[in-house]
Amino acid sequence: MKLFSRRWCASASLGLACTLVPLVTAQAQPQPTALVVAPIAFTQRTLANGMQVIAVPRPGGGRVSVQVWYRVGGKDDPQGRSGFAHLFEHLMFKRTKHLANEQFDRLTEDVGGHNNAFTAEDVTAYFETVPANHLQRLLWAEAERMANLAVDEGNFKSERDVVKEEYRQRVLANPYGLLFNAIAPAMFDVHPYHRPVIGSIEDLDAASVDDVRAFHATYYRPDNAVLIVAGDFEPAQLDGWVDRYFGPLAAPRTPLPRVTLQEPAWTTGKTLAVTAPGVPFPAVMLIWQAPKASGKDAAALQVAQALLAGGASSRLHEALVYRQQIAQEASLELSLNADAGGLAAFAIAAGPRQPEALVQPLLAEIERLAKEPIPPAELAKVRTQLVTAALKERETNEGTAMALGWAVIKFGDPKAADTELAALQAVTADDVQRVLRTYLLSKPYRTLTYTQAEQKEGT
Q1: In this model, does residue 439 exceed pLDDT 90?
Q2: Which pLDDT belongs to residue 171?
Q3: Which of 20, 174, 348, 359 shows the smallest number of beta carbons within 10 Å?
Q4: Which residues does 160 contact at the CB level (< 8 Å), separation at least 6?
Q5: What pLDDT does residue 88 have?
Q6: What class has domain 270-452?
Q7: What local confidence, expressed as pLDDT, does residue 405 receive?
């Protein structure tokens, strides 16, 4: 789950070339056409210091997106310091040797652009979109905060307070916040994915400014970064600026720490209980293990998830919310990370009932999809929705760079941004049913119940 910070705006639109060709099929009935999308035209190189550079020149439009993806996420938080990667998402907007606090806002927003950042399990990414004539200064600024971030006690404490307040708002103040915050610990036993990316107040309070400086020195280095520039620029000029500002940055001699732990396969299921104050109605969540993002079944699982939970017309919502009227919300979340994945089907009761009463209705819809014929029109609609969402993202410089960034982080190859689209369109009904049988019906799962905490006397 990506955790976004306090800034977000849209970027300028660009065109995308694509053509339609018929699907080859032995069936007599008319089949939907497959969208053949022109691959993203990019170049890539690696600097002597190890930094990967991806350039997507798109002449015209007058805007450019600059992104730096660091291979450090929630899984890399030090033991007892959960939330460090997320904390750095905020600290990187503070003072450097040559930049004042919040000057990134001035370099972007004051010229008609915007900036933002997000933290996920495998990555922390920073991105800006600005008029193209401001590209050079943005490259300098990104190199500056990579090399010369000035973490002092004041900035550390102020941004730690911001992150703690995010935790209070998203987890504690939300009636179902503690339920969704419990997914990661229930989904992973060994792999550090079991620590929620947002962290915890206790771990953040235990941190010191020296811990933070050590974290920056460990992970914020050129050989752990991917620079992606998409938009209106001259490739030769971009290369010169990148060499000028990032080339002199030296990679530390110390090796980059990497997570090598493997999550073992579950042999049995179990039930976990979470309670919280102010729970309007009970909820239940069923959790299964899933493959990593680069696994061969990832595309089929995405289509299965969309069939079960892709909007108000999806199967879980239609069955439990509309038809049976036993839930106010029913869905299934699919987490496909770089190292391992998981699925979490959940339902929030529509009234006072035991959460266990929602288990069988959830399982029944999953089993129905796995065993009964899937109407071709339903499958085609879902595949179209998934591909359309991806293409819509690519209409912007920022979205195109995002697609490449995720491909690098999850697949290790920016070309996967294109192959993933082809894989989604190739998913058949048999594929959907096979992955449901493989990862859900034939495997143990964990049941997470969520109910009102007992009130103590006098409260």
Answers
A1: yes
A2: 95
A3: 20
A4: 87, 204, 205, 207
A5: 86
A6: alpha beta
A7: 98
Domain boundaries, the chain: 3-21+35-245, 270-452
pLDDT digit string (tens) for 17-66?
333 333 333 343 445 566 777 899 999 999 999 999 999 999 999 999 99
> What average pLDDT does the structure give for the chain?
90
pLDDT in tens, 326-366: 999 999 999 999 999 999 999 999 988 899 999 999 999 99
The residues that are catalytic are 89
- Cβ(57)–Cβ(233) under 8 Å? yes
Q: What is the topology classification, in CATH, of domain 3-21+35-245?
A: Cytochrome Bc1 Complex; Chain A, domain 1 (3.30.830)
Domains 3-21+35-245 and 270-452 share a fold: yes
For residue range 170-229, list pLDDT tens digits in order. Answer: 999 999 999 999 999 999 999 999 999 999 999 999 989 999 889 999 999 999 999 999
Owner of token pair 């971030």: 149
Model confidence over 253-302: pLDDT tens digits?
A: 999 999 999 999 999 999 999 999 989 999 999 999 999 999 999 999 99
Which has more confidence, 459 or 136? 136
Give the chain as a 3 state SS string.
CCEECCCCCCCCECCCCEEEECCCCCCCCCCCCEEEECCCCCEEEECCCCCEEEEEECCCCCEEEEEEEECCCHHHCCCCCCCHHHHHHHHCCCCECCCCCCHHHHHHHHHCCEEEEEECCCCEEEEEEEEHHHHHHHHHHHHHHHHCECCCHHHHHHHHHHHHHHHHHHHHCCCCHHHHHCHHHHHCCCCHHHCCCCCCHHHHHHCCHHHHHHHHHHHCCHHHEEEEEEECCCHHHHHHHHHHHCCCCCCCCCCCCCCCCCCCCCCCCEEEEEEECCCCCCEEEEEEEECCCCCCCHHHHHHHHHHHHCCCCCHHHHHHHHHCCCEEEEEEEEEECCCCEEEEEEEEECCCCCHHHHHHHHHHHHHHHHHCCCCHHHHHHHHHHHHHHHHHHCCEHHHHHHHHHHHHHHHCCCCHHHHHHHHHHHCCHHHHHHHHHHHHHCCCCEEEEEEECCCCCCC
